[in-house]
Predict the structure of carbonic anhydrase.
Amino acid sequence: MTPSPAKEYRVPPGERSRWQAAIKKAGENLRYDLPASLVVFLVAVPLSLGIALASGAPIVAGLIAAVVGGVVAGALGGSPMQVSGPAAGLTVIMAETINHFGWATTCAITLCAGALQVVLGLSRIARAALAISPAIVHGMLAGIGITIVLAQLHIVLGGSAQSSPIANIKDLPGQIVDHHGPATLIGLITIAILLLWPKLPAVVRKVPGPLVAVLAVTLLAMATGITLDRVEVSANLLDITFVPVFPDQDWVGFGMAVLTIGLVASVESLLSAIAVDKMHTGKRANLDRELIGQGVANMASGSLGGLPVTGVIVRSSTNVQSGARTRASAILHGLWIFLFVAVLAGVLHNIPLAALAGLLVHVGAKLVDIGHIKEVVRHGDLAIYLITLVGVIAIDLLTGVLIGIGAAAVLILRRLLWSGIHAERDGDQWRVVIEGALASLSIPRLTRVLGGIPAGATVTLELVVDYLDHAAFDKLSAWQHAHERTGGTVIVDEIGHPWFERGKAGEPIVRKSDAQRVLPRWFAPWSEWQQAHEPDGPDGPGDGLALPAPRSGQPPIHLGMIEFQRRTSHLVKPTLSRLADSQAPQALFITCGDARIVPNIITTSGPGDLFTVRNIGNLVPEHAAVEDASIGAAVEFAVGVLKVRQVVVCGHSSCGAMKALLSGVPDDSPALRSWLRHAEPSLERARTHPPVGIDGTPPESEADRLALHNVLQQLDRLRGYPAVERAEALGELELVGTYFDVGAAEVHLYDPATGEFRAAGTTIDPLGRAVAG
């Protein structure tokens, strides 16, 4: 048989185009990732050496961790922009671990800590890091920074770091006054260069400051020939024959070290990833995957004799600021460090230890960020920040963070259970105001306030509470009964969920489904919020609750003003204060005087947004009309002086003016008849033009159909005003037709392209803002 010719495989056109697009995109990203990786590499080398020095580990351990962190964590992690390596936050813990177990067993601890991180990542609990307060994070970083500074200052000053931050603080005064040699000069020059570098021109700052500082003082030391302690490395850094060693005893201590390093490395990496996400607009971090990637990297680093790896905010922020696009930048930075070790390891012998110590002093000081402290103060979390900071310095990092979390939990509990309770005289009556969550912890204060109310007084119990527990409910109910037995009166004025609505009967309302649905007072008609509860009366028992009775027959409008003064004034005062001397509204809103139309509600706007004109039928007289120039004056002022961007004419359903046009104005209303003459062209338009639809269907009511034509007629009238005509021609003004269906509570906007009104969800709102459909 003749063998059949081999079939040629052809890549489908669609698949080929996808591959071509992917390759093109990768090439475009590499233009940004390659230079960014070089910048991060230059920052990482001196930092890795300094962290190894501060940890008491072999110098090469920092470089191994940098290579593994870049390549392994960069490739497997879930935060594309994060760069990993040896972390300053673990220096104290690592120093203690190395001192207790020795370097070989410490590597085994790092390996096991990595395995723990992988398990944690697979269990999908990494998102719990999102619940940690920023005050704890900033306090932890500041504590780490101060710890590093305290230790490395001793080396800069020619001494040796002590075993703990407290010991470093005690010995620092003596170290400062002691004799200083060349090491101090080198360390101070390093710090000075790092402080000066950000103030130099941007062109110069393209070279990383840490690299310049270490290189400059190294060349100075070589040129002057001064005697200094320098970096000690083996002749061949690539000759790695190290194997981690597990201990023969103290397995409990070993396990605790694994747990501590694993948890601290995880927390630091996750918090760093969250912080990095805030620096760029690209893909968000997958925290579970990030934890797995960090764990695999730590297993590899421990196996090769490296320090523990974490996500590092210094390198990561440098990566983002240098324009990196993908994880390729982090991976490449690790490869550059490997090439550096392979080719230029010999130059490490010349670096003074004081230079690395000076670099770490600068890095540690930057972790105490004044901007973070201001942010914490603004949110009222300074106590949490300080507690975490002191805990990290006085005890250790993990314990300090746990203490900070505990303090945050206590503060949150206090805020949740806080209640503002005070009594105030209200004329010849009393008012007891209770705000927040009223729980049993507040009963002593509640008892003291209620005890100050005179027997027989009329008391308004104003409750604005988020939660009312059993003990507090019983206390209020018992006090109400006791006060009324003395001849007093208790009026319950409750805002929000009616916890105490049936308090006199001893029946709490816990579930929202049991509560009567009452609209917010700023929206509901007076009749609804004032008569939500009826007192006992001759026609039968009510619920025994009512709002304060008006004094001397106060009308509803007066009560509404009192309500504004008491509950709303302080909320809107900051906004109105800014608007006190000027206004810059976005739109002129011309609508009917109908009481059911509330412009600021249907446009979701507030003070200063709308310049509103209201009249019967939302009419605009001809520009030449002189019998009523008020509308024309408002139009000219809004367009010519205030420079509004839109003029909105808003009609509505069931309009009394439109009905009067159709049925005729009564003879005893000459003023109304005179005014509605301005609407006669709208009536003629409705008779001669096809019906205008709402979403394709004209309204059933003839008055509503006329209202739609009336809106369009008033828009045409507006174009006859010279100020409007001129602004519209220049593209500075837009005319918008709007129709509000009162019964359906729906806003419709006129679409000139279709000649119909459409629901606001398919177009833009009266202020020109996009509204989702």
